[in-house]
Amino acid sequence: MVNLVGLRWLRRYHRLVLWIVSISLIPTITLLGFSYYQAISTARSELKKATEQSSRKLSELIRAADLTLRELEIYLENFEGTEQAAWQLLQQIAYNDPRFREVGIVDEQGYLVATSLGPVEPPIAIKSKTRADLSRREIQIVGPVTTSVMQQRSLVLALPTQGQGELNVLIDPTLLQDFWTALGEQDLGQEGFLVYVDQHHEKIIAGVGLVPRRAETLLAPASRDRIQVRYPVDETDIVIVGEISKGWALRHWERLLITVAPVVLGTSLLVFAALTRFTYFTQLLDYDIRIGLKNREFELYYQPIFDLVANTCIGAEVLIRWKHSYQGLILPGVFIPIAEKTGLIVEMGDWVLQKAAVGCSELLADYPNLYISINLSPVQITSYQNAQAFYEKLKEHEAVTPHLMFEITETSLAETGQEAIPKTLKRIHSLGAKIALDDFGTGFCGINYLSQFSFDYLKIDRTFTCACETTSNLSTALDGMIDLAKRFEANLIAEGIETEKQRQTLLDKGIQFGQGWLYAHPMSLAEFKQFLSLQAGIAKDVGFPSSKVQ
Ligand code: C2E
Ligand code: MG
Ligand code: MG
After folding, report:
1. Ligand 1 pocket check for 20: Cβ under 6 Å
2. Fewer Cβ atoms within 10 A, N terminus or C terminus of the chain?
3. What confidence tens digit (pLDDT) does each residue in 155-199 have?
């Protein structure tokens, strides 16, 4: 049973709940999203810094080698000294810069003819794939190769000479790994790497970390679970590619989450509680009314109005009822003020008008002199647009308009103090409808309004009806109101007649019309039809009360 109620509750409010939960989760999602983005972008920028620095250092090295080899070329072209002096020079170059391992001279046939150790006898043929591209007169990186001279894996920085030979220096490939210092203490994780790729030959020339075997995979974009950065080395075909796994980049973030999770979830819970409270007290009813309108949960009840003299029913006031899907019947006093506040009363009022007009025309088929009274909220006609829209809607029911009466409460008129309202009431009146001032005596604006607009009916509020048989101030006030109605030539309807004694007193005071539990409680249309038929023939005899067209 509880589950069933819960299920129905959830079905009705699931959108609202979803809205509250989504809003409450915003702090959590924002913080998670922001810190996630921060962790990824920090890792990316550190990786970028490392590749940038490696690129800069490699550029410096290449520039130094280029300068040295160009100087050597000029020197060798003009060389006139002894062989010994030449070897000394080569040794100077090889050993003065700790980054260089060895210097070599390759002749135009592609034979290594000399190193700093002296002439190579016999000269060693250099394999074509480890030779520089002679068509480009610029320094190039070749390798890594295991040279016959050093018997070590080396990178060759080679400068093609004018005579189609080549001057080169060898460097240790691990030197490039030392360039990678920008990451500081941070490493690349188990799956990360930083590699120097020769794009021209699609070859990895050096790297650190879990270096992939194939260069092509590096030249393609990285998979989504990895962070990749690429940085070119100036004036070379080399690009430095750095990659780490996202899991590694997020390792601190995951730790941070564990510590901040209670704070973040706490904030979300607070927002949830505040929103739920706010919604419960201010928005729930409004939301509920919208659902009610959509689900056609509203109904019109009819409370008969009687001619007290002839004791015949002359019509009925339609009163809205809300048959809430699980709260049961809700009276208008609960939801009308909210609907007025939010403006939903306009939609609701349109529905009431439509439904009442249809009900009225059904009743008129059997009881052609009957009239139906409809409560009108000032909100429905306050703004020019609303008033115009209401007027147009009413025109659609012109067949029944002379059998309609609109009740507007004195209190609401006093509160809104709208000057436009009398004008709109006159327009509605001009279509043949009657206008009544509801709850007359409670709004303290009677005389003011009575002079601006002549109402067809004044509906005496229930409090005065209750007091009519007493000698209280209210009873005296009632006499004043009766007097006032006479002066303004308005008919009086007494509301809330509950006892025969009240009816008699009101009759004695000259009040002709009334409604109340003494006659009937509000009822459904079907019940009202039955009610009328029980009054057999009575209603047919009663004429529509006289109207005053203004
Ligand atoms: P109202 O227009 O003054 O309607 C009379 C109220 O008095 C109704 O309450 C009715 O049920 C109640 N009543 C009738 N006879 C007796 C009686 O003998 N004794 C007592 N104690 N009460 C009696 P209800 O239906 O709860 O409506 C309350 C108010 O809600 C209405 O007062 C009216 O101002 C407003 N209302 C009702 N339906 C609509 C509607 O469709 N549109 C708008 N804008 N307001 C509506
Ligand atoms: Mg009323
Ligand atoms: Mg009333």
Report:
1. no
2. N
3. 889 999 887 889 998 888 777 777 666 555 457 888 888 888 888
